[in-house]
Amino acid sequence: MTAVSRPVLVVGFDGAEPSLVFDAWLDDLPTIRSLVQQGTYARLESTIPAITVPAWAAMLTGRDPGQLGLYGFRNRLDHSYDRLAIADSTNIRYPRVWDVVGAADGRVGVVSVPQTYPVQPVNGDLVSCFLTPGPESRFAYPLGLKADVQSWIDGDLLVDVPDFRSTDKERIVRDIYRMADQHFEICRQLMRRNRYDFFMTVDMGVDRIHHALWKTMDPRHPDYVPGHPLANAIHDYYVYADGQLASLLELAPHDAVVIVVSDHGGQAMQGGLCVNESLVTTGDLTVSAYPQGVTPLAAVDVDWQQTTAWGDGGYYGRVFLNVEGREPRGTIPAAQYETSRVRVARDLEAVPGPDGEALGTHAFRPEELYREVRNVAPDLVMYFGALSWRSVGSLGHRSVWTRENDTGPDDANHAQHGIFVVYDPLHPDGGRRLDPVSIYDVGPTLLAFMGLKSPEGIRGKPIPELGS
């Protein structure tokens, strides 16, 4: 007999923005509105950095990025200059919620939760995430589930939207809906044929449609297009996702605790701060020849013996120092490490916006953010303009500023807060707002609802106001 006392259903929407869900569009989202009115809701304080990897892993383990040793999709394997690896399921060394449930003999269902590829055994069923290389891969556990999935959907499984940073917006929207139709049908098929003690799924469509189309709806976007034919596309996808959520609730056990959650929010991308261009101007990064066109730093001939710092691009910035005895051609004596880091941080924080305005950029030090710092962390984690500006790592822009993303068209950046909604049918809460709650507390709260203890050494704790 399982030790799980209550079933739990978690439906995640990657990047769902609280100002849209709770404020602008709540009346258009009847399923979420009902859960909010009968339950508890809050903005969810994400990890720093507020990105898909490591945020979902932090949520489900109760550990921070430093404890996980994961600082983004790509992480340095060592202190060399060019060895990077994508963070997949093999990088998560701690039990996630479904592992704890499975160890208590509870049956779990997991569909499209980030960092579940390569698939790992679970006590139940698992369909992996957008990191899956393609439909030919082993994307399901147990092995026979792959054939079932293929029989439930039309065509090959679409694990992500191909080339979602492109100018073909109509095609992107079609692919987002196709991906989501498949994803929610898989969930429904599994929930019809099995009773799960814990079922969790994450939809990536919200995040992808933000990045593709934010400028069509938001007048605050610098490239806002009034009257764009896809102006309602993001709103309409939220409405569609709300309807898909309703279809899952119809299949959930009558006593299931329901959680709707996102790992971070979204906002208009104002442009990019070219972090390596800035480091060139301060003399921290030296190249043998400045590129004639926009060029990834990895393809530029860096004079490492004259370089003290370099950076990576992304929704946030990662800055690394070139330290003697640590990097192969380090230039900063170990005794001068902190002095150099303070100066580089100060210089980047002082970079004004393109019109001379103060951005409010903040440089975080990993050892101040995290309980421990495992693997190779950035020396500085940079939030440019509270994430309204992305970090651009390439060189050749001839400016510290760019309006374009150097990895393809992108309208949105991430925001620090996601959504969190809890509905307990046995203890309705009448629409109480808790603001904000911590992402690290979600996993322990889920386990508490199921009557299970959290693993030792985690950062999070059950949210006491939920009475779990």
Distance between the termini: 22 Å
What value does the average pLDDT take?
A: 96
Proportion of strand residues:
15-25%
Low-confidence stretches: none
SS-based structural class? alpha/beta
Question: Which percent bin holds the helix content?
Answer: 25-40%
Cα gyration radius (Å):
22 Å
Count the beta strands. 21
**Main beta sheet, described?**
10 strands, mixed
- What is the global morphology? globular
General description of the model:
With 468 residues, the protein is α/β, with parallel strands linked by helices. It has helices at 18-24, 30-38, 52-61, 65-68, 97-103, 145-152, 169-193, 205-213, 233-249, 275-281, 337-349, 366-369, 442-449; strands at residues 8-13, 40-45, 74-76, 84-86, 108-111, 124-127, 140-141, 198-203, 257-261, 265-268, 271-274, 309-312, 317-321, 362-364, 380-383, 389-392, 401-402, 412-415, 417-423, 432-433, 437-438. Strands 1, 2, 5, 6, 7, 8, 9, 19, 20 and 21 form a 10-stranded mixed sheet that branches. A 4-stranded antiparallel sheet has the order 12-13-15-14. Strands 16-11-17 form a 3-stranded mixed sheet. Strand 3 and strand 4 (84-86) form a beta hairpin. Helix 7 (169-193) packs antiparallel against helix 8 (205-213) and helix 8 (205-213) packs antiparallel against helix 9 (233-249).
